[in-house]
Amino acid sequence: MLRYILKRLLLIIPTLIGVLLLTFTVIQFVPGGPVEQMVSYLRGKGAGGSEAGGAAQSVYRGQQGVDADKIKEIQALYGFDKPAPVRFWQMLKDFSRFELGTSFFHHKSVWALVKEKLPVSITLGMWTLVLSYLLSIPLGIAKAVRDGSRFDTLTSLLILTGYAIPGFVLGVILLVLFGGGSFWQVFPLRGLTSDNWETLSWTGKVLDYLWHITLPVTASVVGSFAVSTLLTKNTFIEEIRKQYVLTARAKGLSEREVLYKHIFRNALLPILTGFPAAFIGAFLSGSLLIETLFSLDGLGLLSYNAIMQRDYPVVMGTLYIFTLASLFAKLITDLSYIIADPRVKFDGVRA
After folding, report:
1. Per-domain residue ranges of the chain
2. To which H or E segment does residue 129 belong?
3. Rounded distance, CA 303 to CA 114, Å?
4. CA angle, 169 as apex, 164 and 172 as ends, to 5°?
5. pTM of the predicted model, to two decimals?
6. I want to staple 59 with a disulfide (CB 3.0 to 4.6 A). Which of 39, 104, 126, 265 is the partner?
7. Quick one: 198 exposed, middle or buried, by C-beta within 10 A (0-12, 13-18, 19+)?
8. Is 117-340 a domain of CATH 1.10.3210.10?
9. Taking Cα atoms as reference points, which of 66, 235, 229, 208 lies closest to residue 161?
């Protein structure tokens, strides 16, 4: 097992470098970078639009508006005065020390930006994760026990309907119905807290927070727990049909004892082993559409704005964090299989 862990840890390095190299290479061919945007701004065209990006290309070549020395000064300011391979190598050295650089447009370190936006994404991710597990596991068990019944058919129809509706579409429906659209003003339209949140009591702050988070979490949960519910149901049905269940019933055990003492542990292995990756993902995942729809300034919105603004330190820094966390999450998931079921072996090495 130690050999397997070391092998996986060593594979993280080339995988991480490959992801960063691919993204870095694509970035080099995307027009309208920070140098072009700054040149366009100096010419009075503004920054970020397609017109600015196209016009800036000719300016960047020193043909119009801004002299060549000023362009070189701007290139040096953003670090584009060096060849791409040199910049990539320097980025790898900095990332190895977890120095992610400074945002071109926010003028803050990437770490500071991530920590600033992380609470919003944690709020969405953790509530979605917890509620999905709390709802999907009992519902999946109930569907497995009542497989083929009217309850199973009806809940499957509701689950698949919710799964088919994109989260942002459901969010729009919820806003129209309960956010002061055409019907009822029950929940707020934006943010995680009210403007007077600091003046509220502790109980008032909790209630205000829950009041604000209800709609975005509902929009996220409805589509996400369908897979877990059906996975729970299918694994329980598979275990129910195995020989050891028939043996337990033949010994005179009640259905409740058979279900919770014998089937429960084995059937939940696929779900429990996937929990580490889901838990880590809850801290880092940011739903762009949900965050935008409900005006929640989280990691999803940060990443989107960084791409649109060509804020390369933020793009590469957040990609580095997300990729590294995902790779470790996959390793933890594999190891959790061994912890949950000692019969599982990797590469012929006994656990």
Report:
1. 1-37+66-97, 117-340
2. helix 110-145
3. 10
4. 150
5. 0.71
6. 39
7. exposed
8. no
9. 229
